[in-house]
Amino acid sequence: MSKVAIELKDVTKSFDGNQILKGISGEIDEGQVLAIIGPSGSGKSTLLRAVNQLAGPTSGSVVFEGQDLTKVGKQSLNHLGEKIGMVFQSFNLFPNHTVLENVTLGPRRVKKLSEEQANQEAMHYLKQVGMAEKANAYPESLSGGQKQRVAIARALAMKPKVLFFDEPTSALDPENVGEVLKVIQQLAEEKRTMVIVTHEMNFARQVADKVWLMADGQIVEENDSKTLFTAPKEAITKRFIEQVSLV
């Protein structure tokens, strides 16, 4: 029986009186790749930010490692937050630091690793994402795909239990998309627990174990990727899949 990594219970999120998330409940199992898909404005990215407490829920609970992240103190939240890695669509690299420095900042400051150990581990992850040769380069000299691969290495260097990807290819030129998806697919093959908000439908179908189709702040359909894409139950899911030309 699979062990649950994160459990969401009736998660809501409102901004200025506008309810974006309308009672999200679901489970993410350890070693599972969950893809969250759906129309623009359906609340997908808001859900990720609510779960990892970057913009915590208005109500509901997020249970991770037996603790409700919405109720723990700041110190406990920071400690648990180290175990949830986040890769943003806009990279968020520090421009005044080299690639290697970007990857080692977190482990040195948060995990208190020595410079030597942090550098050694960072090079391991940079090699994993195909960016070791750019260790001494600055972000401004990198393509979008290269920046995103560095961002993935930075997240991996914190050795998280769960990895979140918020539309990791949406800011990339088409020629850079494949190199980033390849890295994420390799991570999926390692049976890492990952949640991916994506508009790359073929990728979601091939890589995800489970898919949530979101619309209007709700999960309208949940299933394994093969079933959801080939035999969707809900009309809104069928329309969405037809619009993205998968059937």
Task: Provide a quick synopsis of the model.
By secondary structure, this protein is an alpha/beta fold. The chain contains nine helices and ten strands.
Strand order of the main beta sheet, please?
6-7-8-3-9-10
> Mind telling me the C-alpha Rg?
18 Å
The share of residues in helices is: 25-40%
Give the overall form: globular
Q: Can you summarize the main beta sheet?
A: 6 strands, mixed
- Give the tally of structural domains: 2
Q: Let me know the CATH homologous superfamily of the largest domain.
A: P-loop containing nucleotide triphosphate hydrolases
Order of helices and strands: EEEHEEHEHHHEHEHEEHH
Low-confidence stretches: none
- The chain-level mean pLDDT equals 93
CATH class of the largest domain: Alpha Beta
- What share of residues are in beta strands? 25-35%
CATH topology of the largest domain: Rossmann fold
Can you offer a commentary on this structure?
It is a peripheral membrane protein. With 247 residues, the chain is an alpha/beta fold. The protein has 2 domains: 4-83 and 161-243, P-loop containing nucleotide triphosphate hydrolases (Rossmann fold, 3-Layer(aba) Sandwich), CATH 3.40.50; 95-159, no CATH class. The chain is built from 9 helices and 10 strands. A 6-stranded mixed sheet has the order 6-7-8-3-9-10, sandwiched between helices. A 4-stranded antiparallel sheet has the order 2-1-4-5, with helices on one face. Helix 3 (99-109) runs parallel beside helix 5 (144-157), helix 4 crosses helix 5 (144-157) and helix 5 (144-157) packs parallel to helix 6. The longest helix has 16 residues, at 174-189. The radius of gyration is 18 Å and the shape is globular. The relative contact order is 0.16. The mean pLDDT is 93.
